[in-house]
Q: What sequence folds into this?
């Protein structure tokens, strides 16, 4: 068997390193690796049949998450992404979305920071679907410190459904019409704000006049 010259092996190593470097510079590789790991883990966990049931992921603040020794504000939103992936995998929403050839995007989020999560501090990320309308699911996600049980941050997320609706997704999952829970008062205030903001921006861009 012909041996590969050492110079050729070195060139292959350099090419691989160059490709990996370019990939890490262009794409957020760690995000996609983490997302794949979360989805794979949820795949092997027991399904959750209650669509509004709270699901919990645990985490700990690492040096990669921090600025000024506490969790960076953008990291909260990133962790919420992964928690929603797990939520939708286990309650079947992802499967229903694929079956209906629909898709989902984040339409809006709002987050309130109550106390910083410091480096090394453990937390639970509790996610649940609160309610829905004809276009979107509305979720609540809470960061709860395992040290003292304090809710350190709480986020609302509007998960818009494209080429479908929450009702169609739930009917596909449950094989029946599912009653929509009432909107909590604070969530309703936020939804009203979104609607008012959308109308103002449409008027500012002239879309309201064009649609008349």
A:
């Amino acid at each position: 068997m012909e041996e590969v010259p050492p110079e050729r092996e070195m060139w292959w190593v350099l090419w691989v390193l160059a490709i990996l470097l370019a990939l890490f510079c262009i794409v957020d590789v760690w995000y996609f690796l983490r997302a794949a790991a979360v989805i794979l883990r949820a795949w092997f966990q027991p399904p959750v049949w209650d669509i509004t049931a709270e699901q919990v992921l645990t985490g700990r603040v690492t040096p990669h998450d921090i600025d000024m020794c506490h969790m960076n504000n953008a990291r909260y939103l990133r962790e919420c992404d992964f928690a929603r992936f797990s939520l939708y995998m286990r309650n079947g929403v992802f499967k229903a979305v694929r079956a209906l050839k629909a898709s989902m995007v984040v339409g809006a989020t709002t987050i309130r920071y109550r106390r910083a999560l410091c480096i090394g501090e453990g937390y639970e990320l509790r996610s649940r679907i609160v309610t829905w309308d004809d276009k979107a699911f509305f979720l609540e996600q809470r960061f709860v410190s395992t040290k003292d049980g304090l809710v350190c941050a709480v986020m609302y997320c509007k998960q818009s459904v494209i080429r479908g609706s929450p009702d169609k997704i739930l009917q596909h999952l449950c094989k029946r019409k599912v009653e929509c829970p009432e909107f909590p008062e604070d969530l309703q205030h936020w939804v009203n704000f979104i609607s008012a903001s959308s109308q103002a921006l449409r008027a500012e861009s002239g879309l309201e006049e064009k649609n008349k």
Q: What stands out?
A: The longest strand covers residues 151-162. Strands lie at 55-60, 66-67, 70-71, 103-113, 122-132, 136-145, 151-162.
